[in-house]
Amino acid sequence: MSRPQFSQRVERLPRYPAAPGYAWKGDIARLASNESPDPPLPEVLEAAQAALADLNRYPDPTHGRLREALADRYGVPVERIAIGNGGSDLLIAAGDALLDPGAEVMYAWPSFSMYPHIGQAAGATEVRVPLKDDVIDLDAMLAEITAATQLIVVCNPNNPTSTALPLRDIAAFLEQVPGHVWVIIDEAYCEYSLLDDPDASLELLPRHPNLALLRTFSKVYGLCGLRVGFMLCGSGELCQALYAVRQPFAVNAVAQAAAVEALRHQDAVAQRVERAIAARLQLDEGLRRLGIEPLESHANFSWFRVGDGEQERAIVDELARRGVLVRSGTALGEPGYLRVTYGQPHENERFLSELATLL
């Protein structure tokens, strides 16, 4: 008897390595998903609550108010701003809009675990470029560009390694990328980096119509649960292409209202960054006291080796049994490592105390 078949696309798609612990209740230190430990601001919650009154209406498919607010914040024209259901939504849309079967999409590895979905969903060929000394190797990426290369994604700061490249290196790289290649700089963690002003990369957009900067409300704005990402583009044509391949109501009304309000509180953003940097110092110094040397972090998480893959899995499992959730390096492409989000001071101390006991 014949059976219904799935498309080849389903067969080749990787599965996103979701962090564990969503069903856990009680006193849990959630340090696995690079979320902000700070809850949404009261004003943001009020804006979200107010939007609930109109849930009988569809959300604005053009994201008009949010795009205008982002244009005011970043000085980028509205027609060059795209909104998505988180940054991952825009990455997949970019693959659909920019890649043909047989084309090449390039990214460093290990890097954000959504990148393998971009090419495989579009039927494109992946080109993974190894890191050099735990940092993205831009020279190696340039050497891999061919006539088939259509898209390059650079995560800066890089997830999961927490390392970052200075803007001058990114600028020099873009000057050498051929004009037929689209480049997305994934800046989900840029607010936490001390190498450059987070807004400094905006100056690259007028010079490179093939460039897009990907950012998110999930991290420093603390809106992971509402899923809002945005792309600042060097050309309006890219935005049009992104909207052409996506469903019309990708970002719900509550998320749009909350994001608009969140943009009005840049002082609170600065304070959250300060707290994250203080947590970075607390946790990384604690690791060094345990004889562990983390990489120099420019994000809201730490990345460090704890042994081989077997030792890593044993530590992750035992920490979870003790109510501390961290991210396995194996799931992120580098066995033997842990990625630990900087949490509240008491959560960081709890993690360090439990890790010390295990070690």
* Total number of beta strands: 12
CATH topology of the largest domain: Aspartate Aminotransferase, domain 2
Unreliable segments of 5+ consecutive residues: none
The CATH superfamily of the largest domain is known as Type I PLP-dependent aspartate aminotransferase-like (Major domain)
Task: Write the H/E string, N to C.
Answer: HEHHEHEHEHEHEEEHHHEHEEEH
Which architecture of the largest domain per CATH?
3-Layer(aba) Sandwich
| Mean pLDDT figure | 95
Task: Please report which band the strand proportion falls in: under 5%, 5-15%, 15-25%, 25-35%, 35-45% or over 45%.
Answer: 15-25%
Structure description:
The protein is an alpha/beta fold. It has 2 domains: 8-40 and 266-358, Aspartate Aminotransferase, domain 1 (Alpha-Beta Complex), CATH 3.90.1150; 42-262, Aspartate Aminotransferase, domain 2, CATH 3.40.640.10. Helix content is 37%, strand content 15%. It is built from 12 helices and 12 strands. It has helices at 8-12, 42-51, 64-74, 87-98, 115-122, 138-144, 167-176, 236-244, 253-262, 266-289, 309-321, 345-358; strands spanning 29-30, 81-84, 104-109, 125-130, 149-155, 182-186, 211-216, 229-233, 301-305, 324-325, 327-328, 337-341. It has a 7-stranded mixed sheet, with helices on both faces. Helix 7 links the parallel strand 5 (149-155) and strand 6. The termini are far apart.
Output the keywords:
37% helix, Aspartate Aminotransferase, domain 1, seven-stranded mixed β-sheet, three-stranded antiparallel β-sheet, 359 residues, 12 helices, alpha/beta, 2 domains, Aspartate Aminotransferase, domain 2, globular
